[in-house]
Each structure stands twice: as C-alpha cells, then as structure tokens.
Amino acid sequence: MDIIVSNASGEPIYAQIASQIKGAILAGELAEGSPLPSIRALANDLRISVITTKRAYAELEEAGFIDTVQGKGSFVAGGNVELLREERLRRVESLLAQAVGEAASAGIPLEDLHAMLDLMAEEG
C-alpha cells in the first residue's frame, strides 16, 4: 500500500492518509483482516508526526473501516459489508452529481447524459 502525502494540498495530512486507506479498502486492495502498518512505522515512512498518523487511524476506526487491537496493531475491519456498500454508493452519487452539474453548465441535455452513461457502461 503506497500512501502519498502532499504539503501543497489544501487537505490536512491526516485526512490525506485516511482518505487513501479508505480508498484502498473500498477498492478491495486491502481485504478484511489485512494488517495496516503500525502508527510509528507509517509515520517514519512518510516522515510525519506519529500524532498525525494516530489521528488518521482514529478517524478510520471511528468510521468503522479499521479495528485496533492493543499490542497487536490495526487491521481492516470485518463484517462491514453494508458500511462499505453505503460508502461506495455515496461516492458514486457524488460523482454523478458532479457529472450532472458539469453537463448542465455545458448545456448537455439529460438524454445525452443518459446516452453517455449507457455507452460507458457497455464499454465496461
């Protein structure tokens, strides 16, 4: 799992980390029960504060994406299939809302947008 943080981003570093780990879980790159790097190891790898990494993990745990076992580490949470599905649905809805907004500002009729979506779905 490669995590890339940018000081130039407007998003805080802990949020960048949490977002990338969440994305890897949602994409299936990190399976249920997969261990995550220790907080210290990840902080060292990224050359950031342990506190920043700890905050990212705390957010992921609060959202139900990871479980932390004292003395053993953090792992991708299991049994949250519905949570993951809901998160994916929200992400798709957000992207579709963005596409609808772009189409409206470009004067593209809804029928054409539907046709584009159908074409993209057929192409896989």
Descriptive overview:
The structure is a single chain. The chain is mainly alpha-helical. The chain has helices at residues 13-26, 39-46, 50-62, 81-105, 110-123, and strands at residues 66-69, 73-76. Helix 1 packs across helix 3 (50-62) and helix 2 crosses helix 3.
Which helices and strands occur, and which strands form pairs?
Elements: H1 13-26, H2 39-46, H3 50-62, E1 66-69, E2 73-76, H4 81-105, H5 110-123
InterPro entries: Tscrpt_reg_HTH_GntR (IPR000524), WH-like_DNA-bd_sf (IPR036388), WH_DNA-bd_sf (IPR036390)
Domain HTH gntR-type: 11-79
Protein name: GntR family transcriptional regulator
Q: What is the H level of CATH, i.e. the homologous superfamily of the largest domain?
A: Winged helix-like DNA-binding domain superfamily/Winged helix DNA-binding domain
Q: Architecture of the largest domain, according to CATH? A: Orthogonal Bundle
* Helix count from the secondary structure assignment: 5
Helical residue percent?
55-70%
Q: Give the class from helix and strand content and strand pairing.
A: mainly alpha
Using the coordinates above, name the CATH class of the largest domain.
Mainly Alpha
The biggest sheet, with number of strands, parallel, antiparallel or mixed sense and barrel status, is: 2 strands, antiparallel
Query: In the residues, how many domains can be counted?
Result: 2
In terms of DSSP E residues, the strand content is 5-15%
Number of strands: 2
**SSE arrangement, N to C:** HHHEEHH
Please tell me what the overall shape is: elongated
Mean pLDDT: 91
CATH topology descriptor of the largest domain = Arc Repressor Mutant, subunit A
Largest sheet, spatial ordering of strands: 1-2
